Amino acid sequence: MKPFTYERAKTPAEAAAIVAGRPGAKFIAGGTNLLDLMKLEIETPTHLVDVQDLKLDRIEATREGGLRIGANVTNTALASDDRVRRDYAVLTKAIVAGASGQLRNKASTAGNILQRTRCPYFYDPNQPCNKRKPGSGCAAIGGYSRQLAVIGSSDACIATFPGDMAVALRVLDATVETVNPQGGTRSISMADFHRLPGNTPQFDNTLQRGELLTSVTLPKPIGGQHFYNKVRDRASYAYALVSVAAVIQPDGTGRVAVGGVAHKPWRVEAAEAAMPQGSRAVATRLMAGAKPTADNAFKVPLVERTLGAVMHDAGMKRTAA
Amino acid sequence: MSGSNEMEISRRGLLVGSAATAALTTVSVADSQAAPLQPQPATMKVTMKVNGQRRSLDVDTRTTLLDALREHLKLTGSKKGCDHGQCGACTVMVGGTRINSCLSLAVMHEGDEITTIEGLGTPEKLHPMQAAFVKHDGYQCGYCTPGQICSAVAVLGEIKAGVPSHAMADVTARPQATNDEMRERMSGNICRCGAYSNILEAMTEVAGVDA
After folding, report:
1. In sequence order, what are the residues at sequence separation of 6 or more whose Cβ sits closer than 8 angstroms to the Cβ of residue B12?
2. How far is A288 from chain B (nearest CA, A)?
3. For every one of its 211 residues, what pLDDT tens digit does chain B have, with 9 covering 90 and above?
4. Domain encompassing residue A291
5. Which parts of the sequence belong to the FAD-binding PCMH-type domain (chain A) (predicted)?
6. Nearest CA to CA, how far is A49 from chain B (Å)?
């Protein structure tokens, strides 16, 4: 690791102001992703602002009937909350499908959303990578790309967003709240939070420098059956090849978001209109314009089959009910 | 420092400098602010309660909790396997919760209560999980064992507390200490000798005693 100085901020606005005012400063919450990257010198902050004292560790009911989740709520605490388990089961299921028990105990809600890609070329400082070092090129294109993006990618980057939790947040229409260095706040929908790589893959999301993620808000519950089906190379503790988050209603309508295929949780609302016609109709619309590599072409039919399995289970449960 | 070392550093500095120049020609305006200067190594004081004892340390800010335990406090039971949170050999409990001590900075743990394998039991008075690992041969080389045992103790606690897992079909249910549950929850602890089935037997015995 490169040397850095460290301090604990007292308020969200103070944390944001410190990071905005010091080149090379970064926030640290759980640290499970940032320290991993700092050890490899992929991240080299000169100053760390620890946000653990900001009292952002509560889950509260909102006036609109939803839940506001503090940015520092751990993945375990969020997945364990009785309201989340009952009303937003897709979120609990997505969280426990990711990482290990030890990591979920430390990783924060904000950190999970802000985690960086696990593209092997991003992680290898000897390789060109436009995300790690803008303008250096992309070794993943033409390289080993089995895990990487099949849709929404660019000539500069084919990395994926690696998380599970954010895929569930996308299907639940969650919003992210932030505070800026001047103390101003804003909300960003999950749809607009992560971005596609385009020519600037170094930017994973739409946050400004120094802008601090303070909470995530879930709208009021929408009912339905909740699914998170994750397909991966081993049964536990592995990143998704493809994952499907879905909420399916008794009349067969529903919502679907897909992980492991793009630079952001992938959802196409217009495709969901085809739910009553079956998984092929939905997947065809959802994955229209996919540009897989030879290594990861399997992901496109895998999305359809994983969604098909989810819709089959939903139908079986409806028949049994 | 020897002369040859100094030469190496200045040569490295030169290479870093020229790489930065090359990068600047292609970076967009938004990113082109000069790279911030890396500060000198910084030392801070941190006080933790480790296995019931108050310990104060002066550490480089870069020191992980694992290195503070092993190198500063000489509690070498916790092991460094991958140093990236993938193997679980460094698992300790902080405030009763298991974490990867390699992915946490010591300075982030001011005032925290840390329990390592040394705090669970002693050779004369083993923790029930340690005794069960011995009885069921829950190890071969032993390198992953302190992390396995810390994790196993915490897993039974998490099941009792009702923490959900990927092994549950219904996440609103109360979890039980079944084989599938314990296997799933132990997936962050790798054993290259492959003692998994014996570890599971040890955990099953302790879970049964506790129930």
Report:
1. none
2. 31
3. 333 444 444 444 444 434 444 444 444 444 445 677 888 999 999 999 999 999 999 999 999 999 999 999 999 999 999 999 999 999 999 999 999 999 999 999 999 999 999 999 999 999 999 999 999 999 999 999 999 999 999 999 999 999 999 999 999 999 999 999 999 999 999 999 999 999 999 999 999 965 4
4. 225-314
5. 1-223
6. 10
